[in-house]
Amino acid sequence: MKFIYPAIISKTENGTFRAVFPDLECCQAEGDTAEEAVEKANEAAFDWISLELSEEDGQLPPVTDIRDMELKNGEMVRNICVNIRFTDGWDE
Fold first, then answer.
1. What is the rounded CA–CA span in Å between residue 86 and residue 90?
2. Domain boundaries, the chain
3. What HEC string does 16-64 produce?
4. Alpha-carbon gap, residue 61 to 26, rounded angstroms
């Protein structure tokens, strides 16, 4: 199953890049470049979503529409796509 959540990418004070998911509580990633931050954000979102779905009553939060996001100067949004293959016992 495919899940897509927006991540806000911004440059930090020390010159690295941070990706923060407004919809996935405490889910973020950091990299030396924006591309690396996006790559690590994909891994972080995969882990976050997998953990949430493994909970008995695990439900994912609704996705914020990118058009409703207010970005600060220098911030950009990237949709992060996570593909999760369900194992036996999961309904697709």
1. 6
2. 2-83
3. CEEEECCCCCCCEEEECCHHHHHHHHHHHHHHHHHHHHHCCCCCCCCCC
4. 13
8 C-beta neighbours (distance < 10 Å), count: 19
Q: Is the pTM of this model over 0.70?
A: yes
One-letter identity of residue 28: Q
Instruction: Give the pLDDT band of residue 88 (cuts 50, 70, 90).
Output: low
Q: Is CATH 3.30.160.250 correct for 2-83?
A: yes
pLDDT value of position 80: 97
Please choose, from the candidates 32, 38, 36, the residue with its C-alpha nearest in 3D space to the C-alpha of residue 5: 38
- Over its C-alpha atoms, the chain yields an Rg (Å, rounded) of 14
CA 14, chain centre distance (Å): 22
